[in-house]
Amino acid sequence: MVENEITKNKRQWVRKWIDDRNETGGSALLLKQLRFEDPAEYKLAMRMSPQNFDELLSMISSSIQRHDTFMRDALPAKSKLEITLTFLASGMNYRFLSHFYRVSKPAISQLIPEVCWAIYTALKTHIKIPEREEEWKIIEDGFNTKWNFPSCYGAIDGKHIIIKAPPNSESEFYNYKKTNSTVLLALIDHDYCFSYIDVGANGNASDGGVFKNSSLYRRLEDGLLPTNGVIVGDAAFPRKNYLLKPYPGTQLSTAEKVFNYRLSRARRISENAFGILVSRFRVFEKAIPTHVDTVDAIVCAACALHNWLRKRSSSYITSTCVDREDNDGQIIEGTWRSEINPLPSISEQQRGNHSMTAKEKRDLYRNFFMTAGSVPWQLDRIH
Q1: What is the pTM of this model?
Q2: All residues at 6 or more sequence positions from 259 whose CB lies less than 8 Å from its CB, including other chains
């Protein structure tokens, strides 16, 4: 009699089509079939191999698994992770996710931020600024070998993550592109990985202010980089003795044009990192219609997964995915450029006063690229 009463109460709380989840839901049928019969398609769906999925699940299972209650059984941690990865990979709306996995829409809206934060907590050690000299050396060697840019320790960039404006937010998130957004500021290493991320600045914030209000700015000002080291950025960032940006204007000397070309080559690292991020996690292709706090969780989780999969999977970033050069320095664009629309960049910063050391540092690189540091094809590329 007790069992009958429990079953009766559960039926009052759970719709029949949801109650059939364990027999006919996407996790029980399609994903299970793909996992064993077609691992390549499974990888496209989850953005990772079955082995990577199992490893990630083992890391976060204890933090996302809930206990069964009198009224209903708890959703398995495996299903919660599958739902979240499907959302990140496709940007599928909550209603379609609900139908595919046979999980209520309110439950999905609660579990996605929970799982995203769990993923970030488990993997955030993969997003780290180097602490040891040998770690910095690896990055410097990478920029010098791939892009002929010595003493470079990263490419900095900022992108607008398009969101649906929260109720009563007015122009708080309204940006220069006439959309609503939050900002992802990142420092990217030689291997397309995020060394640092700053997430959540409002889209209408001063673009120069996003950088200056970040913890990265304070650390750079305090001498974060090795002696004489630099990072590269575009016109959105201030010129510093540790941050090289292009020469402005169109009336440039040949040496200044060569410097801008060489800088743009090194900056392709950041362009490609963001491009791969969006091509792998299509949730960023359109406005994310969730609470702003959930957007932050999504961005953090996606960046952490990006770095983790870059280290774990040889096929996450292939040679054709990213920009590369032929023997004449001609750029062959990565496949991500034809697959997605890139995230909007933060806008150009107003020109201001810069220290003489910052000017001298840029001029030093300009002169080096015209002499001992020149590459055979650079003059062809600026005409």
Answers
A1: 0.92
A2: 246, 247, 362, 365, 366, 369
